[in-house]
Amino acid sequence: MNSQDQQTRKDKILDLVKHFRTSENFWIGLTRDLLFVAVMIGLFMLVSQIALGTPRPAVAVESGSMLPNIGIGDVVIIQDIERTHVITYREGAESGYKSFDNYGNVILYRKFGSISDTPIIHRAMYWVDEGEPMWNSGPAAPHAGYITKGDNNRDIDQVASTSWHQPVKEEWIIGVARWHIPWVGYLSLAVH
What we know:
Blueprint: H1 3-22, H2 26-52, E1 58-60, E2 75-80, H3 89-95, E3 98-99, E4 102-103, E5 106-109, E6 120-128, E7 145-149, E8 173-181, H4 186-191
């Protein structure tokens, strides 16, 4: 292929790109917008992974257990547990630390450590050591871990089927919730 043919091919490609960028056609404009959104989400995921250290920096919330502070369809940005530590509700109440309009951290954890179940996003209420009662007059903890609860739930997870009589072990924790973006996760939930 000679240099004239290469220049002609290059000019055709540049004309196509210019047409794509400036076209008033609805479908081309929609494609352009969707491409832009996909690139922005990709960049956001890359920056989040680098900054927050988690391969899964964002999750869509599926239930109303954290209402009114985190709603169904909200996307929650997670910081890897290896890059932070958990502040419980009790510790937050003592120090004044709040996240998502309540004391302590909201954590994302694997139910009973299972990687096949949907992770749970609830608030870390307090820590119990092995053999310590999990709540007043409650049974002894079979191992050390966090007692957790959804902000909109009446009972702690360890009384409910969410984490029946099992404190959340540190190794079950994926990360700590840092921010949320309302309603953005509805599309993801509809697809899954």
